[in-house]
Amino acid sequence: MSKSFQELGLSDPTLQALRELGYESPSPIQEQGIPPLLEGRDVIGQAQTGTGKTAAFGLPIMEYVDPHLGEVQALVLTPTRALCIQVTQALRAYGAVKGVDVVAVFGGAPIRTQQAQLRGGGHVVVGTVGRVLDLISRHSLLLHDCRFVVLDEADEMLDLGFLEEVERILALTPSGRQTALFSATMPAPIRKLADRYLYDPVLVKVEAATLTIDTVAQFQVAVESKGKPDRLTEVLRAERPDQAIVFVRTKVRCDQLFRVLRDRGMNVRALHGDMSQGARDGVMLAFKGGRVPILVATDVAARGLDISTVTHVINYDVPTSPDTYVHRIGRTGRIGRSGRAITFVEPRQQRELGAIERHIGTSVTAWEQGAVASPTPVRERPRRHSKPHISRDGSEPVAKLMLKGGKAAGLRVADIVGAVTSAAGLDGEAVSDVLVLDRFSFLTVPDSEAENVIEALSGKRVRGRLLHAARVQE
Q1: CA pair distance 86, 114, nearest whole angstrom
Q2: What number is the average pLDDT over the span 3-9?
Q3: Among 138, 141, 70, 137, CA closest to 104
Q4: Residue 189, number of CB atoms within 10 A of its CB
Q5: Cα–Cα distance measured from residue 128 to residue 134, given in angstroms and rounded to the nearest whole number
Q6: Which of 155, 325, 334, 444 could be stapled to 183 by a disulfide with Cβ–Cβ 3.0 to 4.6 Å?
Q7: Tens digit of pLDDT for each residue in 264-278?
C-alpha cells in the first residue's frame, strides 16, 4: 500500500502547499526518493520525464532551505531552458507557503535581470549549465553555502556535451554537499560522474508507466502548408469541441496561430514558455475553468495540463516523435470519456505519420466532416530515451544550415545544439554534423525541420551573439 505525503515525513508548510496544488498521493519515484533525501543521503534516480521526479527532489529541497538566510542553499542544473522554466515553476509552487525564493537563470534572457534577482535573494537557483557558469565567472552566483545540488536529466546533459561544465560547477560547491542525480538512462559517462561526485548513493529506479489510450478516435487531415489556417478553422467549426488543445512546435508559431484564430472570432488563448508566469497562470486558470474552449500550446508549456474536460487534441504540427504523439493525444479521452485526436499532415510529413502509425500499431483514419472512427487502443512502448527521434533508419532527408557566428564569438558545439533544442523544440539527436569555424558555424537538421530551425534561431542571442541562420544551397 502506498504511503501518503504526510507519512514520508514532510513538514506542515510543504503539505499545505501540496494540498493547495491538488496533490493527493506520492508517485513511486516520490515515495522511494523523498525519504533518503530527507535523511541527507545522496540519491541516483533513474526515471523518465513525467514520473514526478521534480517533486521527488523539489520537496526535500523545500524542507532543507531556511528562508531566513540570504545565501543560495540549493542548485538545480538542467540541460535546457525549457526544463529550467518548468522546474522553477514547480519549485516556486512547492515553496510558496514557506516563503522560499526560487530564481531561474538561463541563456536567451537578459543576464542583468538575473543578476538583480540573485542580489535580491535566491534561496534556490535553477539554471542551465552555461548561464550558471557565466554568473559564477561574474561573481554574481556564489555557491560556497550551497549544500544541496541536483543534476536533472543528466543523460540529456551528456547528449548536449555539457558534462565537463557540470563537473566544473560541482567542483565549486562544498565537498560536504548532498547530491541527487536524475537520468532516464544510465550510460557509462553518467555512471562515472555519479561514482566521482556522489557519496554512497541510494539508487531509486522507476519504470515509466505505460500509457493506454483506448477512448480516443484518431484522424488525419491531408493539407498543404499554406492552407493549414483555413483548414484548421474549418475543422474547429465542424467539430465544435467543448475544449480543444491545438499543439504547435514552436513559440513563434504558437503566437502566430493564436492571432489568426482570434482574428477569426474564436475564443482562444496561447500558452508557451516565453510568457510570464502570471500570464501562463491566467491562461491555465481560464482553460481549466472552462472559460476558454481553444488553447494553442507548445509541448513544453502544456506539460502538467491534466484536464478531464478536453474533448479534442489537434496536432497542427506533426509531433517530432511518436512518443510525443501518444502523450499529446493522451490529454483527451480522460476518465471514461471519448475523445478525438486530429493530426494535420503536409505531403512532406508522410514519413513522420508512417512512423507514428507503426509505433501505435494502427492506421490513422482520414478526417471528413462528420467522420466517425472507433477509438483505437494505443499502447506506448517503453522509451529508450526521454526524447527519441523519428528517423530511426537515418534515411530522412536532411538540410545543412549556416550560422553567422563561430569560435571568435565564443560559440561552442554545445551552445549551438542547446540553442536548437531550446528554441526550435528538436531533441539533441536530430542535430548532427555541427562544425564551428572562426566566424561561421554549420549544422545539419532534418529537412522537414529546416524552416522551423531557421525561424527559431534567427534573432536569438547565444553568448551575447545575435544569430542569423540560413540554408546552405548545395
Answers
A1: 17
A2: 87
A3: 141
A4: 13
A5: 10
A6: 155
A7: 899 999 988 778 767
294-297/268-271 β-pairing: parallel
Asked if 273 and 253 touch (Cβ cutoff 8 Å), the reply is: no
Q: Please check the confidence at residue 124 and state whether its pLDDT lies above 90.
A: yes
Contact between 244 and 268 under an 8 Å Cβ cutoff? The reply is no
**pLDDT given at position 303:** 59
Reduce the DSSP state of residue 233 to 3 states and report it: helix
User: Residue 66: what pLDDT?
Assistant: 93
Report yes or no: 268 and 257 within 8 Å, Cβ to Cβ. no
**Alpha-carbon distances, residue 202 vs 109, 187, 195, 271, 330 (angstroms):** 36, 18, 12, 38, 33
Which residues does residue 124 pair with via DSSP β-bridges, in sequence order?
74, 102
Residue with cell 494505443: 378
Distance CA 416, CA 186 (A): 24
**Angstrom distances, CA of residue 236 to CA of 45, 318, 346:** 42, 17, 18
Q: How far apart are CA 64 and CA 38, in angstroms?
A: 8
Helix, strand, or coil (residue 193)? helix
Q: How far apart are CA 127 and CA 4, in angstroms?
A: 30
Q: Where are the alpha helices (DSSP H) in 9-78?
A: 12-21, 28-38, 53-64
Amino acid at 137: S
CATH of the domain at 315: 3.40.50.300
Q: Are both 309 and 174 inside the same structural domain?
A: no
For the chain, give the percent of residues with pLDDT over 90.
35
> Number of C-alpha atoms within 13 angstroms, CB side, residue 45?
31
Domain finish residue from 350, 379, 408: 379
**Consecutive H or E run containing 180:** strand 178-183
Out of 170-184, 197-211, 403-417, the most confident range is 170-184
Look-up: residue for cell 474547429?
236
| pLDDT one-digit tens code per residue, 458-467 | 777 787 778 8
Burial readout 349-384 (b: 16 or more C-beta within 10 A, e: otherwise): bebbbebbbebbeeebbebeeeeeeebbebebeebe
Instruction: Indicate if the pLDDT at residue 367 is higher than 70.
Output: yes
pLDDT value for 352: 83
Domain that holds residue 252: 212-379
Per DSSP, the residues of 4-23 read PTGGGT--HHHHHHHHHHT-
Instruction: Report the C-alpha gap between 196 and 279 in whole angstroms.
Output: 42
Q: How far is CA 420 from CA 165, 389, 401, in A?
A: 19, 14, 12
Q: Are residues 112 and 180 in the same domain?
A: yes
In the predicted structure, residue 107 carries a pLDDT above the cut 80: yes
Residue 79 to residue 100: CA distance in whole angstroms: 23
Q: What is the overall mean pLDDT for the chain?
A: 82
